[in-house]
Amino acid sequence: MYDFIKGRVDYVCPEYIVIEANGIGYLIQAPNPFVFSGGDEEKKIYVHHYVREDAVALYGFTSREEKKLFMKLLNVTGIGPKGALAVLATGRVDQVVEAIEAEDEKFLVKFPGIGKKTARQMILDLKGKLDDVAPDAFPDLFSTEGGKEMSSYSMKNHELEEALLALEALGYSSKEIKKVVAQLEKEKKTTEEYIKDALQLMLK
């Protein structure tokens, strides 16, 4: 129904963004909502209109490749929208495609909600079928590189607090998040950068 929505980002939180286009505010869930924050210029968000008997939602992405991979992940038994968003939150479509093509179950099970059975199902369902998602995502591209829980982190870094809330929204446990906090605190970064760095650390 929709390919993309172009407008001004009115609101950003760990779970979703609101983009205003032609006087309408669209609530769009995204893998990493903070990718769209900053600046008043219009932003183009590629969207998937998700419709089920019990749910209607918009999911947004920075590229058509992200959107395509999200849609393919939804066709894998055991993966719903939340699980697919968590897989895409690193912003590295090529990384996920490489893991599937290499049958790297050890890497795939590091995503929240993805167990061995689901990782195997991802490989069975998607291996060899992702050329249209990331046609150039091979050799050299595989990198090695919630509010109620926040009080335990005892920090005053607003951007880092937002990033940790976003990780909780994706399904990562407090225990998993706490393991990377010390490394993240070493440098002052944007919320988006903290999220990407944290995800890379947890996927090692």
TrEMBL record:
GO terms for biological process: DNA recombination; DNA repair. InterPro entries: DNA_helicase_Holl-junc_RuvA_I (IPR013849), Hlx-hairpin-Hlx_DNA-bd_motif (IPR003583), NA-bd_OB-fold (IPR012340), RuvA (IPR000085), RuvA_2-like (IPR010994), RuvA_C (IPR011114), RuvA_C_sf (IPR036267). Residues 71-90, 106-125 form the Helix-hairpin-helix DNA-binding motif class domain. Belongs to the RuvA family. This is Holliday junction branch migration complex subunit RuvA. It holds the Pfam family HHH_5. GO terms for cellular component: cytoplasm; Holliday junction helicase complex; Holliday junction resolvase complex. Has three domains with a flexible linker between the domains II and III and assumes an 'L' shape. Domain III is highly mobile and contacts RuvB. Residues 155-204 are annotated as: Domain III. Homotetramer. Forms an RuvA(8)-RuvB(12)-Holliday junction (HJ) complex. HJ DNA is sandwiched between 2 RuvA tetramers; dsDNA enters through RuvA and exits via RuvB. An RuvB hexamer assembles on each DNA strand where it exits the tetramer. Each RuvB hexamer is contacted by two RuvA subunits (via domain III) on 2 adjacent RuvB subunits; this complex drives branch migration. In the full resolvosome a probable DNA-RuvA(4)-RuvB(12)-RuvC(2) complex forms which resolves the HJ. Keywords: Cytoplasm, DNA damage, DNA recombination, DNA repair, DNA-binding. It comes from Pradoshia eiseniae. It is found in: Cytoplasm. GO terms for molecular function: ATP binding; four-way junction DNA binding; four-way junction helicase activity. Its main location: cytoplasm. The RuvA-RuvB-RuvC complex processes Holliday junction (HJ) DNA during genetic recombination and DNA repair, while the RuvA-RuvB complex plays an important role in the rescue of blocked DNA replication forks via replication fork reversal (RFR). RuvA specifically binds to HJ cruciform DNA, conferring on it an open structure. The RuvB hexamer acts as an ATP-dependent pump, pulling dsDNA into and through the RuvAB complex. HJ branch migration allows RuvC to scan DNA until it finds its consensus sequence, where it cleaves and resolves the cruciform DNA.
